[in-house]
Amino acid sequence: MPTTLPLSPEELAAWLRLALARGLRPTALRALLGAFGLPQNVLAQPFSALAAVAGAQAAHAALGETRPDFAAQLEALQAWRAAPGNAVITLADPAYPARLLDMPDPPPLLYAKGRLELLHARAVAVVGSRNATPQAIEDAARFARTLAASGLTVVSGLALGVDGAAHRGALHEHGGTVAVIGTGADLVYPPAHRPLATEIAAHGALVSEWPLGTPARSANFPQRNRVIAAFVEGVVVIEAAQRSGSLITARLANEMGRDVFALPGSIHAPLTRGCHGLIKQGAQLVESPEEVLDALNVGQPSGSGRALASRREPRRQKVSVPFDRPPRDAGETLPLPLESPRGEPLRAHRGEARKPTASLAAEARRLLEALGHAPATVEILAQRTDMPEAVLQGTLLQLELAGHLDALPGGWFVRASRGQ
């Protein structure tokens, strides 16, 4: 990887001045740098020369007065840059990630912490809902772990839900992980991810295009998503609502010629509608990380392919069992009253209204949330909820009798679809 070039205080000040100039868009700044070279040269030009290249507005912005707090910001940046593991990478630096140069508006400065070589590695993004279901959390960690073990760097946005699970899954694997954040590199958002951000800075990399001290603003995150899309060869979307930042990332990635992958889910789950929409628009439906690796022509970890396949096969067999019910003979009738798999009468019949979810006990609501919209066994639900076995079994029965879930053959449970 190219080594980050040292910057003199004057050079750093010139870069920061242009990066902070009000009204100077990255596209205009790139044009000025292309015409005149380094920022010091841009700032030394007359107004007419700058306007001829990038327009009057850009010329006014570049030559305008600095912000009142500019000196303090420059001092803070110099101190931050001097700390171990921190780096400021300019658009003219050989260490600037080459894939970001494909963008029409690459950030003039990148504030980075950690392993800078990961910014040049083959990478794939794993993104999805902040309010992810337990199944999506498991899928994100599993996909990220396998992708990173195969040598791909997993890129995400440090958000709650899928992003955090993806970072954790990839963190200690060969490919590592990069977090592209929507605040200054000296801040962490959400605050709950401070320990995770510390781990990523130690074992992966944190990257921001925002000046130090920039707080979390809603407008920053779509802009952050364009950097995620540019960093990678493909984007894997695991759960996304119909209006989701993950869909913005997928759209931008598609516009940049990157591959887009989406995990399917239940037609009754609101957080899978975004993924289904992507699939309808041409995204590749994937059910395993190996399919992503195949699409990107990445070899699986040495000796792991067979082991991974052997672990997946029993799961596919188990999941398929509930849907392979033998057909009833013509004229066969179901016994009345209906019985549950435990032999107890079902008091909530198909045609009866089920109890509203809001009226359920707290444990029942928590278990229903843990079940999500995909079939799960008692063992899986026990891991997700940490409920004692007796409480778990009793709560499952309560939800079944209330019509909120169905017990399927093979010990599987699924959220009831009727009325959804």
Low-pLDDT residue spans: 303-354
The Cα radius of gyration reads 26 Å
Helices and strands: which structural class?
alpha/beta
Q: How many DSSP-defined strands? A: 12
Main sheet overview: 9 strands, mixed
Quaternary assembly:
single chain
Overall structural domain count:
3
CATH fold assignment of the largest domain: Rossmann fold
Succession of helices and strands: HHHHHHEEEHEHEHEHEHEHEHHHEHHEE
Number of helices: 17
Q: Report the portion of residues in β strands.
A: 5-15%
Per CATH, the class of the largest domain reads: Alpha Beta
Distance between the termini: 53 Å
Mean pLDDT, nearest integer?
Answer: 84
Q: How much helicity do the residues have?
A: 40-55%
Indicate the overall shape: elongated
| Architecture (CATH level 2) name of the largest domain | 3-Layer(aba) Sandwich
Q: Which strand order does the major sheet show?
A: 1-2-6-5-4-3-7-8-9
Biased composition (Basic and acidic residues): 341-355
Pfam families: DNA_processg_A, WHD_DprA
Protein name: DNA protecting protein DprA
Domain DprA winged helix: 353-411
Would you mind describing this structure in some detail?
This is DNA protecting protein DprA. Residues 88-296 form the Smf/DprA SLOG domain. InterPro entries: DprA (IPR003488), DprA_WH (IPR041614), DrpA_SLOG (IPR057666), WH-like_DNA-bd_sf (IPR036388). The protein is 42% helix and 12% strand. By secondary structure, it is an alpha/beta fold. It folds into 3 domains: 9-79, no CATH class; 115-314, Rossmann fold; 357-415, Winged helix-like DNA-binding domain superfamily/Winged helix DNA-binding domain (Arc Repressor Mutant, subunit A, Orthogonal Bundle), CATH 1.10.10.10. A 9-stranded mixed sheet has the order 1-2-6-5-4-3-7-8-9, sandwiched between helices. A 3-stranded antiparallel sheet has the order 10-12-11. Helix 8 links the parallel strand 4 (153-156) and strand 5 (177-180). The N and C termini lie far apart (53 Å).
